C-alpha cells in the first residue's frame, strides 16, 4: 500500500464509528441555514463528527438547526450575521477559532437569485448578486488564510468548497447576474487550489443543477427574503411545487430533481478524505443534466 493510500486508510479507520470528519471544524454559510442545502449540510457534517459553525442573517433560524444538531449529539457554534457585511468574515473566523482553535473546512453556500432579463437589470440588482456570491466567499476565505496556510507539522485534512451552478457553466436566461457570479466562483476556486495546494489545502467547486429548495420552487408560492433592506422574490415563475413526487423531467437523465440531502452528500464527499486527491475540480451535481 502506498504511503498516501495508507494515510487515507488510517484516517478512515480511526474515524470509523465517529465519522468521516471526526474532530474537524467546518464553517458552513447559508442563506438561510434553517432549511435547504445549508441545513442538510450542517446536519450531515455534524453526523460525520465535525464541529459545525453555522451562520444565518436571522439568529432565530439558527436556533432551529442548532437544536437539531444538538438532538443528534453534534457540536455546533451559531454565528448570526449577513455574509455580505464588511465585518462578517472577522466575526465568524474569530468566533470559530476562539471556540475550536482551528478551521478545517469552509463551505461557501450562502446565496440567492435575483432574476431579471439582462436589458432590464439595474446596477444594484447585478451588484448585490456579485457581492454575496463572489465577494463574500473571497473575503471569508482571505480572513481564514492563517488557518489554512499552515506549517507541515500542523496540517490536517483541510478544504474549501464553493457552491456554483449550472448557470455558471452554461449561462441561463434571466440570470446574467447570477451566471456571472457563479462563473467567477469557479475561477476563484481554481486560483485557491493553485496558491494553497502547497499547504495541503484542497479547493473545489460544486455546480448544482435542479435541487428542490426555495430558490427552485414556484415563484407564485410567494417566498421572499430581505437583502439590503429590499424584499427579493424567490423561485422560478411557473415551476412545479418543490419536491413534487413522481415529477418526470425529461431533460434530466435521472428524470427528477435532487434533494438538499443529496446536495449535502456531494459537499461531504469533497470535504472528506475520500477526496484527498481532488482539487481544482468542479463537481456537477445535476442528475446528468447538460451532458
UniProtKB/TrEMBL annotation:
Keyword Heme: no
PANTHER family: 3-OXOACYL-[ACYL-CARRIER-PROTEIN] REDUCTASE, SHORT-CHAIN DEHYDROGENASES/REDUCTASES FAMILY MEMBER
The entry's keywords: NADP, Oxidoreductase
Organism per entry: Favolaschia claudopus
Family the UniProt entry places it in: Belongs to the short-chain dehydrogenases/reductases (SDR) family.
SUPFAM superfamilies, alphabetized: NAD(P)-binding Rossmann-fold domains
Listed GO MF terms: oxidoreductase activity, acting on the CH-OH group of donors, NAD or NADP as acceptor; quinone binding
Name the record gives this protein: Uncharacterized protein
GO BP, one annotated term: fatty acid biosynthetic process
